């Protein structure tokens, strides 16, 4: 835990750079993210990637996330659902931080960014259901796992609030790397456990969220110019636990693309 806090505090103190505050409109975000998502790597590594505010900043962010992910992997080992529970507990925190800072600015009368509030709430709602699914799968059954994830999330919340208040684009870049790691983690899990997952039933929470609930909030995290009705027609089919993790993986890809789009410098 001390190493975790040290690395994150180092990030706050050493890598804040001037930037344009919240430059992206919803329309511009849609235009930026209109790229094939067949593979997340095609989106993130293609030649049409948007310009960054700093080359130094993303490099540090990526290294930081690599180190923290390695620590989590080392601690949880092959306890996949416990690791995913921790991942989802921590991964939803940035959206709470963004919303808190945005509400503070609006309360102070500085400016209002309603489209950002809608997007980040949709993202937090999505991550909440990922967490509920992991809890239903037993990922939170051990006290030690809950204690570690919840305490890490508590400190991470305040750190992200600070980064976001000083440099929103830095905060978005940091979270992009977190979401990319989440996508890669779930993608690897799906490939390694495909047969086993296809033999298991989907949790009721996942069936309700992906197959039965109204998709207004869910649709808001998908960055495309499709209407809600068109996205509704692509509602995922949930027949097994494998399908659930495919949906979760794809959701993380959407989060990563959104975080990438919100860092664009020139429009």
How would you describe this structure in keywords?
single chain, 267 residues, mainly alpha, 14 helices, disordered N terminus
Number of distinct beta strands: 0
Order of secondary-structure elements: HHHHHHHHHHHHHH
Q: Helicity, in percent?
A: over 70%
How many helices? The count is 14
- Overall mean pLDDT stands at 75
Tell me, what's the shape? globular
Main sheet: strands, sense, barrel:
none
Structural class: mainly alpha
List the uncertain runs: 2-56
Distance between the termini: 40 Å
- Taking Cα atoms only, what radius of gyration do you get, to the nearest Å? 18 Å
Beta fraction:
under 5%
Describe the structure in your own words.
The protein has 267 residues and is mainly α. It has 14 helices and no strands. Helix 5 runs antiparallel to helix 7 (114-136), helix 6 (93-107) crosses helix 8 and helix 7 (114-136) runs antiparallel to helix 11. It is globular. The N and C termini lie far apart (40 Å). Mean pLDDT is 75; it is low at 2-56.
């Amino acid at each position: 835990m001390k190493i975790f806090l040290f690395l994150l505090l180092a990030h706050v103190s050493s890598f804040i750079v001037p930037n344009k505050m919240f430059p992206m409109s919803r329309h511009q975000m849609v235009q930026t993210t209109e790229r094939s998502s067949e593979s997340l790597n095609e989106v993130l590594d293609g030649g049409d990637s948007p310009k960054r505010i700093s080359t130094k900043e993303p490099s540090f962010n990526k290294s930081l996330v690599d180190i923290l992910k390695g620590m989590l992997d080392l601690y949880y080992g092959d306890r996949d659902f416990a690791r995913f529970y921790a991942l989802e507990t921590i991964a939803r925190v940035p959206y709470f931080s963004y919303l808190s800072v945005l509400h503070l600015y609006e309360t102070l009368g500085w400016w209002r960014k309603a489209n950002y509030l809608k997007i980040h709430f949709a993202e937090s709602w999505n991550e909440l259901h990922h967490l509920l699914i992991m809890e239903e799968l037993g990922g939170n059954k051990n006290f030690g796992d809950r204690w570690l994830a919840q305490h890490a999330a508590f400190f991470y919340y305040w750190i992200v609030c600070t980064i976001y208040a000083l440099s929103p684009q830095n905060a978005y870049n940091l979270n992009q790397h977190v979401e990319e790691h989440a996508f890669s983690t779930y993608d690897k899990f799906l490939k390694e456990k495909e047969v086993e997952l296809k033999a298991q039933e989907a949790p009721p929470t996942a069936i309700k969220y992906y197959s039965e609930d109204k998709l207004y909030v869910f649709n808001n995290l998908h960055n495309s110019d499709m209407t809600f009705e068109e996205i509704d027609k692509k509602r995922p089919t949930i027949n097994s636990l494998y399908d659930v993790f495919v949906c979760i993986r794809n959701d993380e890809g959407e989060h990563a693309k959104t975080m990438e789009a919100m860092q664009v410098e020139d429009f």
